[in-house]
Specification:
The chain has a single domain, classed as 3-Layer(aba) Sandwich (Rossmann fold). 46% of the residues lie in helices and 13% in strands. It is built from six helices and five strands.
């Protein structure tokens, strides 16, 4: 199964701090794992703001994701246009573009954000 991982899942995966219910998806070698450039952008911004929950080198994280077989889904105009069709449930622009990518690409979004579960899209809440 293809899975798009949200930013916190990526951070937890890189730090080997995944909750057990998320680890089962990440460690399942039959799953294809994807990440969005929006996650890398979010990490760069929040590292620059010295956020305590974003203490990672984004360059190392990005290289590690690629080295470990994660696939990057480019953000396209189709994805950005799909954001306009999303109900106004969640305000975070990073999460909204990832939702639009998940919908457009028919790939479930793996997340721990309960608010995202309210969207009519393939969400796997862990």
């Amino acid at each position: 199964m293809k899975l798009l991982l949200d930013t916190h899942i990526l951070l937890w995966s890189a730090a080997n701090k995944l909750p057990a219910n998320a680890a089962k998806y990440i460690l399942d070698e039959t799953n294809q794992l994807y990440f969005s450039p929006a996650s890398i952008w979010e990490i760069v911004i929040k590292v620059g703001l010295n956020r305590a929950d974003f203490q990672v080198d984004p360059y190392v994280l990005y290289s590690g994701l690629l080295d470990n077989g994660y696939n990057e889904i480019a953000i396209t105009s189709r994805h950005t246009l799909a954001v306009s069709t999303l109900p106004d449930i969640h305000k975070d622009p990073f999460d909204r573009i990832m939702l639009a990518q998940a919908i457009s690409e028919c790939i479930p979004l793996l997340t721990s954000d309960i608010t995202l579960f309210d969207y009519p899209t393939p969400i796997i809440l862990v």
